[in-house]
Amino acid sequence: MDSITQAALGATVAGAIAGKRCTPKVLLVGAALGTLPDLDVILDYGDAVSNTIKHRGFTHSLLLLPPFALLISWLYCYFRPDCFWHFKRVSFLTISVLVTHTLLDAMTTYGTQLLWPIEGYFEVRNIFIIDPLYTVPLLIAIVAAMLPKINGGRWCQLAVFLSTLYLGWGYLAQQNIGQRVEDNLALQNLPNQNVIVMPTPFNTVLWRVLVLEEDKYWEGLASLLDADKRIDFVSRPLGDWPLEDKPQTLQGLKAFSHNYLNYREENGTLIVSDLRLGMANNLSFQFAYAEKDEEGQWQLLDAPLRYPSERGLQHISTLWQRLKGDQSISANLR
């Protein structure tokens, strides 16, 4: 999730655990702990692909976070022996904030290495990486908890409960769309072995569907508000890797994306894109791997580079109309 949401979640989790002892200082500490796992973005792994696929790695591991939290808690209690918070409660708060951070990240489509150093990316895909309906209740609780004569702990407990309910709603909505997708694939005689259902930006009502086949993929949009339950799928070529050499970063990108990759040539550049993140022709993670020389032969770049994508809010109004069930404009979003 985005940094604001993670800080807000950390603050409210800390406030919920503090209860009647919830103070602005507790909220601040919770917010700081909530952003701590994402500090891995400052690390440079050598190239654009590695920086992408190794994010949410060791700093998000459920095998490392608890012992790290215990170390932080021990240091805090060691240097603050006069604090009324004892080690057991400090460690419970610290572990809770760090673990909820990584579990929330695992709800998005990006993927989280929950068991690092064991290989594997985990994602539920029931919430978009930025979703105001999830974040706003957390922010309201933080503001309320800062006010005098307010039981901030109660507000934080309510916000954590509501945000968790929203995650549950997202999962149920995803399953609803998933059943509809399954029915449509059967009716339209399309493959159903490699299918993923993901929320579109900022909501859990309109969902994007990807269906992977051997040499092409199918893409569709489905809203919970659609009157017509038919999903119009658009077919696009997957392309293929044209070189004999396959760099290690390509293998890593395949694992990260679960092989939902598209290969295409653009202006003499070989571009590899993660199909899961973004919208159709406006994908978020695209990488330049090779360029053609004067003889038209592919030459690998020394290191893959991030290829610019048109990331913006230009499709928001169209997205909103499609969310409300207007299926006639689906083509404008794909």
TrEMBL record:
GO terms for molecular function: hydrolase activity. Keywords: Hydrolase, Membrane, Transmembrane, Transmembrane helix. The chain crosses the membrane at residues 58-78, 90-107, 127-148, 155-172. It comes from the Bacteria. This is Metal-dependent hydrolase. It holds the Pfam family YdjM. It comes from Vibrio astriarenae. The keyword Transmembrane helix applies. The lineage of its organism: Bacteria, Pseudomonadati, Pseudomonadota, Gammaproteobacteria, Vibrionales.
